[in-house]
Amino acid sequence: MTDLVRHRGPDGEGLHLGPGVGLGFRRLSIIDLKRGNQPISNEDETVTVVCNGEIYNYLELRKRLLAAGHRFHTESDVETIVHLYEDYGPRCVEFLRGMFAFALWDSRHRRLMLARDRFGIKPLSYAVTRDALCFGSEIKSILAGGAVERRVQAHAMQELFTVGFIPAPQTLLRGVLRLPPAHVLLYQARTLTVQRYWDLSFPAQGQTAPRSGEEDWAEVAQGDRVSKETRVGRSRLALGPVDAVVRAGCAFGV
Amino acid sequence: MPSFVQDALSECELRARGHFEPTAVRALLARQQAGAGDHGRELIGVLGVQLWDEWFLRGAKTN
């Protein structure tokens, strides 16, 4: 499965295999080049994550988590996810700013969590079969797993020719779905739930004062600070798929 | 028309993939080539699905 997305992460490969779960990962190294390989686990290795993307506010989160007693063994932005999950469970995703799609395995609760960033910058597709949930950054990884039947979704074909694209969560393949932006998927005891964790809010007219120019600038400056924090060498993370770590995997018999 | 497009939209390939009615697609293609209508959007859609099938549904990219 991971071989098929080698083009998205040529610098490394990682696997986590355990009872009921397999996570695969391909890496393009940007942050913590030596120790930042994935999957990454928490202190007692009960929570493991693979992530495609970048957590922009990881330094701030890391500081808070260290103060709360967590121990980090890498400098990777992705490690913040497992420690946040220890404290907040699936709500951990609400603390993250960035572009990401990740899969997290909680071995204590035998729970798989998939999550996608607020605007769906990073892709994530999945399929549920009789006894497994398979997922990947690209659908061809899911197909390579061999558990998903290759059958065209006729309704999606109609959408493609009517509106020119296939609205999420559908794909052109029957049984293969995209996780929508700002959503979390939980798979536990063969029960699947998909929930939205964030949405745009539009305050009613008159409820908020117009923003000042200083406020706008402060937000821009904040964004620039975050961007600088996540800069490594001469690579700018906000400018393209330079941090395109990739994961593809399967959670069997959860 | 590039050869890969001719191949993908040939009656044989259309029939083999089974997503589209070959007669209808060939008629659209004939009208397009004769300048009798603008069916570019539809034909590009058909071409996309044919290639997607070849490469990803049954093809080597996922095997």
Task: Please explain how this structure is put together.
- With 254 residues, chain A is α+β, with helices and mostly antiparallel strands.
- Helix content of chain A is 21%, strand content 28%.
- Chain A is built from five helices and twelve strands.
- In chain A, strand 10 (183-188) and strand 11 form a beta hairpin.
- Chain A starts with 11 loop residues before the first strand and ends with a strand.
- The N and C termini of chain B lie far apart (30 Å).
- With 63 residues, chain B is mainly alpha-helical.
- In chain B, helix 2 packs antiparallel against helix 3 (22-33).
- Chain B is 68% helix and 0% strand.
- The chains are: A alpha+beta (254), B mainly alpha (63).
- At the A-B interface, helix 3 and helix 4 of A face helix 4 of B.
Q: Proportion of β residues of chain A?
A: 25-35%
Class of secondary structure makeup of chain B: mainly alpha
Helix tally of chain B equals 4
Number of strands of chain A: 12
How far the N terminus sits from the C terminus of chain B, by CA atoms, comes to 30 Å
Mean pLDDT metric of chain A: 81
**Count of β-strands of chain B:** 0
- Backbone shape of chain B: globular
Considering residues with a beta carbon less than 8 A from a beta carbon on another chain, report the largest interface and each chain's count: A-B, 13 and 13 residues
Mean pLDDT of chain B: 89
SSE string of chain B, helix = H, strand = E? HHHH
- How helix-rich are the residues of chain A, as a percent range? 10-25%
Major sheet strand order of chain A: 1-2-12-8-7-9
How many distinct helices of chain A?
A: 5
Report the principal-axis shape of chain A. globular
Oligomeric description of these chains: heterodimer
* Biggest beta sheet attributes of chain B: none
The major beta sheet of chain A can be summarized as: 6 strands, antiparallel
Ranges of chain B where pLDDT stays below 50 over 5 or more residues in a row are none
**How do the SSEs of chain A run, as a string of H and E?**
EEEEHHEEEEHHEEEHE
